[in-house]
Every structure is written in structure tokens, then in C-alpha cells.
Design a protein that fits this description.
alpha+beta; elongated; about 15% strand; two-stranded antiparallel sheet; five-stranded antiparallel beta sheet
Length: about 260
């Protein structure tokens, strides 16, 4: 298995703007899959700042901040959201691109169950729903009161996105391994040698890749078209994939993808 895994090159595709423009893709849509696991990440080292410098609304208690944020979502009160999250609130909450369905998912989970999890004496995290999904924007205690820390929220979202992409990359590599083992069961090019595929998608009328168009029930491709088409030359959940067909230079100390 190790040979097959090493036979595929995976490189990261950097997409910084995606962090800001898809809040609820990270914040809400992945409710009970990946975010629950990653929500337990602690970022104790981030400094608590005075919210007055951020031009944000401060609250007497973290509970008041939590309830006010929920009210703003329920009423679709953009002015109140701006007061709560600051003038740059759209960096973390792009309301123009968030669907009503995503917002309703959060509201429904919040109404079913919500608690404030303590992360030290000056930080609280909102956990909602039966699965205790944790919102990445923490409520912190500054010199003037409790407020939502946007800077740390963006960092937590970045960590979650990277983690979700890494899990998908691992699944893609495992799918690649299974496909190569399936491909090598038969002599696909009739040369008397069992061999691995040299590319993801076969040429026209050929069986020299892990996926081919003539995908009949009796001649199924080892790799599904969804994965094959997405990972060939394109970024798939933040990573690029390439089949290595020859031995490269040996690494001296460490190898970089």
C-alpha cells in the first residue's frame, strides 16, 4: 500500500479569500460531520483586546452577547449584526451570500439547545444543538465588557477549513489506492504485464487511466468519474493531485510535496 500512496503527489492550493466568503460553509453547513471534532481546538495564546478599539458593541455578560447575536439572526437585523461584530463584520459574516437555509439551521439548533463553554476565565464559546456544535467566533472579556473576537474567529475558521481539506485529501488518496489495486488486477493493454495506471483519465477509446468513458456495467472504471474529473489538473478541496510515473531525486533530509 505504501508504494501506491507514495505514487501520488498531493500539493496544497492556497485560497485565502475563500476563508471569508464561505462562512456558513464552514460555520454551519458541516454541522455534524467535521466541525464537531475541530471545534475543540484551543487558541489560548491569542490576546484579548479592548472591543472599543474595534468599534464593536460590548455586553455585560457573555450570555447577553449570545442572546443578542441570536436575536439579530432571527430578525435578519443587519444593523444589529454590524454593531455586534464591528464595522468589518462582512469579513466573517458575508450576509449577502448566506442562504436562509443555513441561517435557519443555526437558529433551529440554537433553540433546541445552546450552552456557553468556558475556555479560561475570559473566553466563552457558543455550542448549539444536540451535537454541541461550537461556533468559531468566541465571546471574550475585554476592558469594557464581553464582545465577539473577530480576529480569533477568522483564525479558527481557517484551521477548520484546512482540517476539513486534509480529511478530504486523505480520503481521495485512499480512493486512489483502491482504484490502482483494482486496475492492476487485469492486463488492461494486453501486453502480458499487470501494471498500475499512469494517469487519472484514459485517452479516447483507451483503458490507460483509472477512469474511462465506456463505463458499462461489465467494464466499470476503477475510479469514479466524480473524483477523476475533479482531481485531474484542478484543485479539489484545497489540494492538487498528480500521479508520479518515475522515481525522482532521493531526499537527503526531508521531502517536500
Amino acid at each position: 500500500m505504501s508504494y501506491i500512496i507514495l505514487n501520488i503527489r498531493v500539493s496544497m492550493a492556497i485560497q485565502p479569500r475563500a476563508i471569508r466568503t464561505f462562512l456558513f460553509g464552514i460555520l454551519l453547513s458541516g454541522f455534524f460531520v467535521f466541525s464537531v471534532a475541530c471545534s475543540k481546538i484551543n487558541l489560548h495564546g491569542i490576546e484579548v483586546r479592548d472591543s472599543l478599539l474595534l468599534n464593536q458593541k460590548v455586553f455585560t455578560t457573555a450570555e447577553e452577547a449570545n442572546n443578542t447575536f441570536e436575536l439579530a439572526l432571527k430578525q435578519n437585523n443587519i444593523k444589529l449584526l454590524q454593531e455586534i461584530l464591528g464595522t468589518d463584520y462582512q469579513e466573517i459574516l458575508p450576509v449577502d451570500t448566506i442562504s436562509n437555509e443555513d441561517v435557519q439551521k443555526y437558529i433551529t439548533a440554537w433553540e433546541k439547545e445552546h450552552v456557553l463553554l468556558a475556555d479560561g476565565d475570559k473566553k466563552r464559546l457558543i455550542a448549539v444543538g444536540a451535537e454541541q456544535w461550537v461556533m468559531p467566533i468566541p465571546i471574550v472579556l475585554g476592558a469594557s465588557g464581553w464582545y465577539f473576537d473577530i480576529k480569533e474567529g477568522l483564525e479558527r475558521m481557517r484551521i477548520r477549513r484546512i482540517g476539513r481539506n486534509e480529511l478530504t485529501a486523505m480520503k481521495a488518496v485512499l480512493a486512489y489506492y483502491d482504484a490502482q489495486m483494482k486496475y492492476a488486477e487485469l492486463d488492461r493493454d494486453n501486453d502480458g504485464v499487470l501494471e498500475y495506471a499512469q494517469k487519472f483519465i484514459s485517452g479516447s477509446g483507451m483503458l490507460d487511466g483509472l477512469y474511462w468513458e465506456d463505463n458499462s456495467e461489465k467494464n466499470l472504471s476503477p475510479l469514479s468519474p466524480l473524483i477523476a474529473q475533479r482531481i485531474q489538473g484542478n484543485s479539489f478541496h484545497g489540494y492538487h493531485y498528480k500521479i508520479l510515473t518515475a522515481q525522482g531525486p532521493l531526499c537527503q533530509n526531508s521531502c517536500r510535496l
